[in-house]
């Protein structure tokens, strides 16, 4: 799909300097720009590239004034970075704007479908499923019985949503996600073997939740595993049964959260963090990558290490740890002098 500079300027409310009829059909970095590409300049470090880029259109801040001649057409906006991000959203919306039901696919006669939906080939839609308006379900996806999917949600190829789960509006479930798998619940019996504890609950994703590729969210043993509004989950995260994650919390890749832990609002959790079960983490908590959390955490704490310490205490301790051989040598030298003088 092609767009002219004039069309893009109208979308962004920008001013054109150059040819309003020049067309673009792809996006690029400014240093890799080619004819027919759209790029942007926001970081002054990349300003030299604007004089050599072959990109047909470049989005710049209104304050930019070229010092040399340009081949590219400029679109001047208040904030080039935000404007380019807006275009990326628009580009994705156009690219993903598929409608209709592809075959072969299976849709139960008891399923309810909204308007303007897309269901890709080889998808399975179970009994009593409710699909909202503008929902996109890409090929090879599985939607189990009694699942509800809200308006404008996207389920990418190969995702699995088990029975009884609820997905809100404007969510994104990426490829390979498993929503509603059984929680890890087993009880030892008299023979020393483990018997499975039935997992009868579900998973609830509230509105505007993004779930990264390969992430698993287990259904609750009883009740619900709940991911609150606006939560953003990276790829390959494990969330166990009966966990609750507060609104607008963001979690990076390969983090594991054990069962029944409650995480507050607006938290930032780095990659490869391990969190034990049955604890409460407060609001606005920041946890650095590869930390191990084994206790309740109060609001606004910043943590690092395994087991995690207050971030400032960790950095002070690490200075001593790095210098430990020198410190030990100094102590030994002092002992030798003291013993030699006694």
Automatic annotation (TrEMBL):
Gene3D superfamilies: Hexapeptide repeat proteins, MurE/MurF, N-terminal domain. The keyword Lipid biosynthesis applies. It comes from the Bacteria. It catalyses: a UDP-3-O-[(3R)-3-hydroxyacyl]-alpha-D-glucosamine + a (3R)-hydroxyacyl-[ACP] = a UDP-2-N,3-O-bis[(3R)-3-hydroxyacyl]-alpha-D-glucosamine + holo-[ACP] + H(+). It is an enzyme of class 2 (transferase). The active site is at residue 241. Its EC number is 2.3.1.191. Pathway: Bacterial outer membrane biogenesis; LPS lipid A biosynthesis. GO terms for cellular component: membrane. Keywords: Acyltransferase, Lipid A biosynthesis, Lipid biosynthesis, Lipid metabolism, Repeat, Transferase. GO terms for molecular function: N-acyltransferase activity; UDP-3-O-[(3R)-3-hydroxyacyl]-glucosamine N-acyltransferase activity. Catalyzes the N-acylation of UDP-3-O-acylglucosamine using 3-hydroxyacyl-ACP as the acyl donor. Is involved in the biosynthesis of lipid A, a phosphorylated glycolipid that anchors the lipopolysaccharide to the outer membrane of the cell. Belongs to the transferase hexapeptide repeat family. LpxD subfamily. This is UDP-3-O-acylglucosamine N-acyltransferase. The gene is lpxD.
């Amino acid at each position: 799909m092609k767009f002219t500079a004039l069309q893009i300027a109208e979308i962004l409310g920008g001013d054109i300097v150059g040819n309003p009829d020049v067309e673009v059909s792809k996006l690029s970095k400014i240093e890799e720009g080619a004819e027919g590409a759209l790029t942007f300049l926001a970081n002054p470090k990349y300003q030299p590239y604007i004089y050599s880029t072959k990109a047909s259109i470049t989005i710049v801040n209104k304050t930019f004034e070229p010092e040399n001649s340009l081949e590219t057409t400029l679109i001047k906006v208040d904030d080039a970075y935000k404007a380019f991000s807006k275009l990326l959203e628009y580009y994705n919306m156009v690219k993903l704007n598929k409608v209709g039901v592809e075959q072969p696919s299976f849709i139960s006669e008891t399923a309810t479908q909204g308007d303007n939906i897309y269901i890709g080939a080889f998808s399975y839609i179970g009994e009593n499923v409710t699909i909202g308006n503008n929902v996109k379900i890409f090929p090879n996806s599985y939607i189990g019985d009694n699942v509800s999917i809200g308006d404008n949600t996207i389920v990418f190829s190969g995702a699995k949503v088990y029975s009884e789960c609820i997905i809100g509006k404007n969510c994104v479930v990426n490829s390979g996600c498993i929503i509603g798998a059984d929680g890890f619940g087993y009880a030892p019996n008299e023979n020393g073997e483990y018997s499975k504890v039935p997992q009868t609950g579900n998973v609830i994703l509230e509105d505007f939740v993004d779930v990264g590729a390969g992430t698993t969210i287990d259904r609750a043993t009883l009740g619900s595993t709940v991911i609150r509004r606006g939560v953003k989950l990276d790829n390959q995260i494990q969330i166990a049964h009966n966990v609750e994650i507060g609104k607008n919390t963001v979690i990076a890749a390969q983090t594991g959260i054990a069962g029944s832990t409650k995480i507050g609002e607006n938290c930032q959790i780095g990659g490869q963090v391990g969190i034990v079960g049955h604890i409460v983490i407060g609001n606005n908590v920041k946890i650095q990558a590869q930390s191990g959390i084994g206790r309740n955490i109060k609001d606004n704490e910043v943590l690092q290490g395994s087991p995690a310490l207050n971030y400032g205490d960790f950095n002070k301790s690490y200075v001593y740890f790095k210098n430990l051989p020198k410190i030990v040598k100094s102590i030994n030298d002092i002992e030798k002098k003291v013993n030699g003088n006694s």
